[in-house]
Amino acid sequence: SQQGEEDPQALSIQEGENATMNCSYKTSINNLQWYRQNSGRGLVHLILIRSNEREKHSGRLRVTLDTSKKSSSLLITASRAADTASYFCATHVKGETSGSRLTFGEGTQLTVNP
Amino acid sequence: DGGITQSPKYLFRKEGQNVTLSCEQNLNHDAMYWYRQDPGQGLRLIYYSQIVNDFQKGDIAEGYSVSREKKESFPLTVTSAQKNPTAFYLCASSIIGREVGQPQHFGDGTRLSIL
Questions:
Q1: Burial (CB count within 10 angstroms: exposed 0-12, middle 13-18, buried 19+), residue A50
Q2: Which of A7, A81, A103, B44 could form a disulfide with A3 if both were Cys (CB 3.0 to 4.6 A apart)?
Q3: CA A67 to centroid of chain Cα atoms
Q4: Alpha-carbon distances of B35 from A17, A107, A108, B31, rounded to whole Å
Q5: Mind listing the pLDDT tens digit for each residue in B13-70?
Q6: How far apart are CA A25 and CA A20, in angstroms?
Q7: Buried/exposed code over B37-68 (b: 16+ C-beta within 10 A; e: otherwise)
Q8: Checking DSSP bridges between strand A108-113 and strand B105-106, what pairing results, if any?
Q9: CA distance B38 to chain A (A)
Q10: Spatial CA neighbour of B71 closest among B56, B49, B91, B89
């Protein structure tokens, strides 16, 4: 089964509202990352949070990490139609023999209606 | 501008045919990756390479092969043994630094279909 599972699978909101997406994982991690994918394009890295961090901000993005619950959330504030995309979490699992390998979740499809 | 270039954007495969997807990066990254994405799903790792002339199988390597003869290039061959090759294929790269799990940079993908 997937290391990372996003919730909800799909989210539809109005422009200006906040969007919250959640990611749960199963094993201990070194870091957790969030990526964005526009339709038919590659993924773009948004933000990385380390296992010893609890919260991180980048512009309109806020990420939290709760290692006791093995979960993370991505909050996009004051959403815009241009935020419409799929959002994926990815983890680097502690003990992973490859220093670079990430495990991706199945994503949340966000639709922001103008 | 540094980045990752995947070609072609669209590719069609006939029955019994091998096809090769190109991935080139000019970011001077050591690590490169190939993922498969099926509609509405996440990314599954096919192969990855952390250094020239070395690569490792990912979770779904059967029916695929790769080579890493140059740092900049990591082509993926979808062989006739891959019975369900229709998917979106993404190539990525990253640095290998002191900190593990570095962010990955992605190309814009190749969409492979069966004729």
A1: middle
A2: A103
A3: 15
A4: 33, 15, 18, 13
A5: 888 899 999 999 999 999 999 999 998 888 999 999 999 999 999 999 999 999 999 9
A6: 17
A7: beeeebbbbbbbbbebeebeebeebeebbbbb
A8: unpaired
A9: 10
A10: B49
B90 at A interface, C-beta within 8 A: yes
The per-residue DSSP string of A61-110 comes to: EEEEEETTTTEEEEEE-S--GGG-EEEEEEEEETT-SSSS--EE---EEE
CB A31 within 8 A of CB A45: no
Give the CA dihedral B78, B82, B88, B94, nearest 10 degrees. -60
